[in-house]
Design goal:
two-stranded antiparallel ribbon
Length: 199
């Protein structure tokens, strides 16, 4: 267990990455910029917080890729389940921190921090879904989704298509459900993947 914690940077890189993502989301607040939205034929105002979960996904990808293949292959512990628990722990931590901060700021349903854990669940789920096939390049899948929904996810300036659910406000049950389903599918894929990852 201690070796696994050290290999996954669970006490160094991972906490630092989560803290950086939280602070960045807090500092960005509701900051938004106009970005091209091809489905609108113009621009859409996108909150910069939409890009923070990609940072968390990148940190998770790095931590999951720091391993000792021989030791993990011969060990008796279920490494994939420990990895899944690590990912779920990160999602839960960011969701709790974001929700508590939003409540403390008296913006329980409107502050962008409320969606930090939700959208991180989506980014992490996509990362885990893609890892068995794309290996190290899987980190680009959450990046591609974010840019994809920004470019093609709007049917009206403030109304995303259903598949652009990460753009929905914190009060959207559909977005929450979709992110949970993607995270669950990613975790299941990671745990059940039969083929060993090549490093």
């Amino acid at each position: 267990m201690t070796l696994w914690i050290r290999c996954r940077r669970a006490t160094t890189t991972l906490p630092a990455g989560c803290a950086a993502a939280f602070v960045l989301a807090l500092l960005l607040g509701g900051s938004a910029v106009p970005l091209p939205a091809l489905t609108l034929g113009g621009t859409a105002t996108v909150q910069l917080n939409q890009f923070v979960p990609v940072l968390v996904a990148a940190v998770l990808a790095y931590c999951l890729d720091t391993r000792i293949p021989a030791a993990e292959a011969s060990g008796i512990r279920r490494i994939r389940r420990l990895d899944a628990a690590l990912v779920l722990g990160v999602i839960a931590l960011l969701e709790l921190a974001g929700a508590l901060t939003a409540l403390a700021l008296d913006e329980p349903s409107t502050h962008p921090l409320w969606t930090l854990g939700r959208n991180t669940a989506c980014a992490a789920g996509l990362l885990l879904l893609a890892r068995p096939w794309l290996r190290g390049a899987a980190v680009m899948v959450p990046v591609a989704m974010v840019f994809g929904v920004v470019l093609f996810g709007y049917r009206r300036p403030t109304d995303p298509y259903p598949w652009g659910f990460v753009l929905e406000p914190a009060t959207s049950p559909f977005a929450a459900t979709a992110c949970i389903v993607i995270a669950a599918a990613g975790v299941a894929t990671h745990v059940l993947a039969a083929k060993k990852e090549e490093l």
